[in-house]
Specification:
The chain has 2 domains: about 45 residues, no CATH class; about 30 residues. Helix content is about 45%, strand content about 30%. The protein has 2 helices and 4 strands. Strands 3-2-1-4 form a 4-stranded antiparallel beta sheet. The mean pLDDT is about 95.
Length: about 80
Amino acid sequence: MKCTVDRITGEYAIILSDNGLAFTLPLSIINALEAHESDILHIEVDRKQTDAVKQSARAKLNALFARTTATQDNE
């Protein structure tokens, strides 16, 4: 989705999307991007990376659960 930083008001930036939606973002996000009024932002969902992060978290949780279960079985 393509968005434009319409204006900055106080601690928020007003963002207008190319499909007509308007929303606010904290100014800290805009500052971290080094964006200014009239700058174009592209917002996208990276499903491949999301799935990789979920899989990694699931593996860590399973390993922790296996360790906890093994410890309880030895008590």
